[in-house]
Design brief:
Blueprint lengths: L8 H11 L19 H16 L3 E4 L5 E5 L7 E7 L12 H17 L6 E7 L12 H7 L17 H7 L16 E9 L4 H5 L3 E7 L1 E10 L3 E2 L11 H19 L2 E3 L3 E4 L5 E2 L2 E10 L2 H22 L2 E10 L2 E2 L2 H13 L6 E4 L4 H5 L5 E6 L15 H20 L1
Parallel strand pairs: 3-4, 3-5, 5-16, 6-15
Antiparallel strand pairs: 1-2, 2-4, 6-14, 6-16, 7-12, 7-13, 8-11, 9-12, 10-12
Helix pairs in contact: 1-3, 1-11, 3-11, 7-8, 9-11
């Protein structure tokens, strides 16, 4: 029988993402959950390191637990970064972030197979904390690399009471090193391939698209304090119900975002003491505000803070709002967009451009260097969900675009 044809770069990338859906690369046996500095994260790094080294890359782990595989070029002093993240939300999809890492790795493997070196080095990056699903502050790795960690994140605490500092030490890393940014001068561009996480490319009938920019984002943590009391003996007018206030606040976020034409989400909410016959005394919840322009996002935040203060005063609830992070909008590099458009058109496709409402590590890296993003079609635009799906043909087209893009960078 004839040998089976070799797997394409897209097929290999997807198979590696699919492998990462299961233990030991996931914390849960029947769902994909891979959070920062967990054993599942460690296992994923070990597998990636093996593949990188097999491709002839020099591999290191930086102080923020970002795995970096370096493929040297023929000339010193210039480095192209390609990467994304390998952490996930709880019960997430296999391709969010991870596909970008696997495609970057696959492109380097193809260069190595050809025995080809470019006039610049390539570093493939696997960030570990883009989602912020463990310590509730995202993009620690990319912000460290860009030198924009304004506050020391090592004191952040997860749901089990473990600090990030302790988790870093468990990885053999020194938390104090996060305060010393790399200050790199050799990086000339960051390219992030990523699934679209939206339905636009599917509606356009296109496998890939060029990202023009990324929306501004603000995350808040809100704590409300009322009075826990007996559910059967406390009259309704005399209650200080923290959950009822939180419910009104959630609707306030929805109303403000809808009126402003932006997005607003409350994705996490906890109630204390959390018993069916006790009026909730405390509530904590998250607020996520995103807009194409920082001004619209900031107006929505100010309106929410004012509205929250009013409803809490009316209900006799104490309130505290803490800023978790505020990310500026990011414009992708025009020259890199043009080269991606040329690469896509050269493969017979329409070079479609679109903006990203989701946050990405590219937002942080924009403080270090110009950035570019290539979106890959995902079925029905579903993401942060086990139903996330990408076709092998689309992943292969993304890999071909990336290789053509590298050739154009080489010639320029």
């Amino acid at each position: 029988m004839p040998d089976a044809p070799p797997a394409s770069l897209g097929e290999i990338a997807l198979s590696r993402c699919d492998l990462f859906k299961r233990p030991p690369y996931s914390e849960e046996p029947r769902a994909l959950t891979r959070r920062f500095l967990t054993q599942a994260h460690r296992a994923a790094l070990a597998a990636l390191q093996g593949w990188m080294e097999a491709a002839g890359m020099a591999v290191r782990l930086d102080p923020a637990a970002t795995l970096i595989g370096r493929y040297e070029g023929t000339q010193p002093g210039r480095t192209l970064l390609i990467g994304s993240h390998i952490d996930s939300v709880r019960d997430g999809g296999a391709y969010d972030g991870a596909l970008g890492v696997m495609l970057g790795l696959g492109v380097v493997e193809e260069l190595a197979r050809q025995g080809r070196r470019l006039p610049f080095a390539i570093e493939v990056l696997a960030f570990g904390d883009e989602e912020g699903s463990r310590f509730h502050a995202s993009m620690t790795g990319s912000r460290y690399l860009a030198g924009t960690l304004a506050a020391d994140p090592a004191g952040l605490v997860d749901e089990a009471g473990v600090t990030m500092a302790a988790a870093l030490r468990g990885f053999g890393l020194d938390p104090a090193a996060l305060q010393a940014a790399p200050a790199r001068k050799d990086v000339f561009l960051y390219l992030e391939p990523h699934i679209e996480q939206g339905p636009v490319l599917e509606a356009e009938g296109l496998p890939v698209g060029i990202v023009t920019g990324i929306a501004a984002q603000t995350r808040l943590a809100v704590r409300l304090a009322g009075m826990a009391n007996h559910a059967g003996t406390t009259p309704m007018p005399l209650r200080r119900d923290a959950l009822a206030a939180a419910a009104e606040a959630v609707l306030l976020v929805e109303r403000i975002a809808a009126a402003a034409g932006i997005t607003g989400t409350v994705g996490a909410l906890t109630v204390e003491p959390g018993m069916g016959n006790v009026i909730p005394g405390h509530c904590q919840f998250s607020v996520d505000l995103r807009a194409p322009l920082a001004e619209a996002r900031d107006r929505a935040e100010a309106e929410f803070r004012a509205g929250l203060a009013e409803l809490c005063a009316r209900r006799g609830i104490a309130q505290e709002v803490r800023l978790v992070q505020r990310l500026a909008p990011c414009l992708c590099d025009a020259a890199a967009q043009s080269l991606l458009a040329e690469a896509i058109a050269g493969l017979g496709l329409h070079p479609f451009r679109l903006a990203s409402g989701a946050g990405h590590d590219a937002m942080s890296l924009a403080a270090l260097c110009p950035v570019a993003m290539l979106f890959i079609r995902c079925r029905a635009g579903v993401s942060h969900n086990p139903a996330e799906s990408v076709s092998a043909a689309d992943a292969e087209m993304a890999a071909r675009v990336m290789l053509d893009f590298l050739g154009r960078l080489e010639r320029r």
